[in-house]
Amino acid sequence: MEVAVILGPMKPRGWILRYSVALAISIVTTLLILGLKPVLARGLMVLYIPGVMISTWYGGLGPGLLATLLSVGATAYLFLDPAGSFFIQSADDITELVVFSFVALLTSILNTAQKSAQQALVESQADVRLVFDVTRAANEADTVAQAFRFALRRLCEGGFWIYAHVYLLTPPPKETLLLSGFFHVADEARFGALREGTLHRSFPGKELLAGRAFDSGRVEWVDDLSADPLAPAYEPFLREGIRTAAAFPVKVGREPVGVFECFAPGPVARRDSLAALLEVIGLELGQVVGRRQLQDEYSEAVWQQQRVIAQELHDGLGQQLTGLGFMSQSLTEKLKTSEEEKSASRITEGLKNALEHIRGLARGVFPVAPDSEGLVAALGQLAESTSGTFRVACRFDCPRKILVDNPQVALHLYRIAQEAVTNAVKHGRPSQISILLEAAPEGIRLVVVDDGIGLGKKNGNSHGSGMRIMRYRAAAIGGTLRIEDAPGGGTRVSCLLNDAERGPG
Question: Which of 457, 444, 388, 441 lies closest to 417, judged by CA?
Answer without folding.
Answer: 444
